[in-house]
Design brief:
Number of helices: 1
Helix content: under 10%
Distance between the termini: 22 Å
Largest sheet: 3 strands, antiparallel
CATH superfamily of the domain at 4-64 and 100-125: Rieske [2Fe-2S] iron-sulphur domain
Structural class: mainly beta
Number of strands: 11
């Protein structure tokens, strides 16, 4: 596995993202894959590392199972932390005031691509450092 995911890497297509419904994508294939989340809110798309700042676990147990029961927030399946879709800010649960790690993306011609190289080894070890 390459330890660097290079700028320009395709993460997804906006046509595959229903408004408000987060989708998981793989950053690195390992025993426990390092994954991210894409979520479209209107015309904007946000990308986050799929790790809760509370216990560093993936947010979902089921594929793409990220939403609170009412569908308005991203919810951690382990401890119930609640995050805003457009900011990643935790607004409920054990990590209030902390945020999901935002991943640098841009939308061009319907494709969502990285705008910076990602050091996957560092991201896996220290997911909330810049």
């Amino acid at each position: 596995m390459s330890r660097i995911l290079p700028v320009g890497t395709l993460l997804g297509r906006v046509a595959n993202l229903p408004d408000g419904a987060p989708r998981e994508f793989i950053l690195a294939e390992t025993e426990w894959p390092l994954t991210g989340i894409l979520v479209r809110v209107g015309d904007a798309v946000h990308a986050y590392l799929n790790r809760c700042p509370h216990a560093l676990r993936q947010l979902n147990f089921r594929p793409d199972g990220f939403l609170s029961p009412d569908g308005t927030l991203i919810q951690c399946s382990s401890h119930g932390a609640l995050f805003e879709k457009d900011t990643g800010l935790c607004v409920g649960g054990p990590c209030v005031g902390e945020s999901l790690r935002r991943l640098p993306i841009a939308l061009h011609a319907g494709e969502l691509r990285l705008t910076e190289d990602l050091d996957l080894e560092r991201l896996d070890r220290q997911p909330f450092l810049p």
